[in-house]
Amino acid sequence: MIGLEHFLIFSGTLFCIGLFGALAKRNAIAILMGLEIMLNSVNINLVAFSRYITTGDLTGQVFAIFVVAVAAAEVAVGLALIVAIYRNRMSVNVEDFDWLKW
Amino acid sequence: MNVMFWILAVITLGSALLMVLNKNIFHSALFMVVTFIGVASMYVMLQADFMAAVQILVYAGAIAIFIIFGVMLTVRGNMKQTNLFSGNVEFAGLISLAFVVINAIMVTRTDWPLSTATPPEETVSTIAELMLTKFVVPFEVAAILLLVALLGAVIIAKEVKKTS
Question: What does pTM read for this prediction?
Answer without folding.
Answer: 0.91
